[in-house]
Amino acid sequence: MSKALALLLGIGILALSVTHGGSVYSHAATVDDQNVVAATIPTNSPTLVSVDVVAKGRANTMVAGGTLQFIAYGTYSNGSVVELPESETDPVIDWNTSNHGVAKISRLGHATAMDPGLVEIEATVGAIKASPWAITVTARSGSQPPSVSCSANPSIVTPGGEAVITAVGSSPQGLPLTYSYGASAGSIGGTTTTTTLQTLAGMAGVVAVTCTVTQQDGGSASATTDVLVATSSGDLDGALNWQAVHDPGTPGESRGSSVYPATAAPYDDARMFYVTYSGRAGERFFISFGSSTAATHFIYDTFVFIRDPSQVENIEMDINQVMSDGRTVTFATQCAGTSRTWEYTAATAVDVDRYPHWHPSNIPCDPKEWTPSWHHVQIASSRDSSGKVTYEWVTLDGTTSNFVDASGQSAENLGWKVGDLILNFQLDGANTTSESITAYVENLTIYRW
């Protein structure tokens, strides 16, 4: 800062002393009888040559979330170095940082560390750009990492379709969060809590989506969700070619009929299945829904409503596919009252005749324990080229359970047309007397890839 000292030496004579940057400049002035000062100031006063930015205490590190004061020092033509602003003519007119994601700075040189990383603190004085000061921002020690969940809606799309991805993040310290996304296929982007996965025509299979949150101190967390890209049979409720037949593999007698559309609140477009039976007989309803020898993975997806679950011993949900060699692969599962598990069919080591048979699994299920309301069922299975089927998982009302060691040969020569895809929905009676079963399905769809 410049300082001036005036000393009256006598009538008409005034001495001026100006201090600037540690140097003293003396000048004489005259005072007339009207007290008007006339002085000549030399034009060789020192000028600002360069500027340097320095952190208070010469610190070169900051912790995320912390603050630090920065100072600009000016070097003048006479060699003096002073803290700026040194005068009204040399203000620091602009503070800045090289990376606002790592640190931000106020107009008074007060910096706040945002995220871990390297950053330079910058300043401009008039037309002079200061030499910057480098700072390393580190993560806050002892901070707790954030958490995140990741979900997709819908979780199954056809090739070229879209799924909305939602990430819900939380920071224990209440720090700001940033979002990012990745996918094993298709395209995805975005930095907010929701984004869109765009699949491509011709895609098939499971796309793994990763949701990541990073909090201000550098801690991060990730979660994944799967989006299945598959060919859809479409809603089969309203298909016209449903048929019914007594299953000769069950005892007793049965007759079945089917009605569409039928009302079972809240749906008015469900398909109703009605079975009269005796002697614990089973009635199979079936429909051909397409042709494919290439598909190796299937998901049976439907909502099921049983009016009186006490009448049902088994609810069977199957898919048949005729492979290119003419053998028919059976992907068969049932919620079985006898074993009280999700049973599956396969020829395993215990089947000495080498034909597929029903086997209990590790996943509990008993139709008599179902409430008389809508239940969402999804069953996933796959095969290899030899016809060996692997039963993968069952989701019942949003709870997914994985099959354990549920696989085996399940292909037979039945003389069916190559490529045929057939869906089965079977209801087995629980009683020996003459009884009836009323059931509904809604949004019955088969996905394949």
Give an account of the 3D structure:
It is a single chain. The protein is mainly beta and 449 residues long. Helix content is 0%, strand content 59%. The protein has no helices and 38 strands. Strands 22, 24, 25, 27, 32, 33, 34, 35 and 38 form a 9-stranded antiparallel β-sheet that branches. A hairpin with a 5-residue loop joins strand 28 and strand 29 (328-336). It is elongated.
Total count of helical runs of at least 4 residues: 0
Distance between the termini: 78 Å
Q: Approximately what portion of the residues adopt beta-strand conformation?
A: over 45%
Main sheet makeup:
9 strands, antiparallel
Inertia-based shape: elongated
Average pLDDT confidence is 90
Q: Calculate Rg over CA atoms.
A: 40 Å
Helix content: under 10%
Class computed from helices, strands and strand pairing: mainly beta
The low-pLDDT segments are 1-13, 36-41
| DSSP strand count | 38
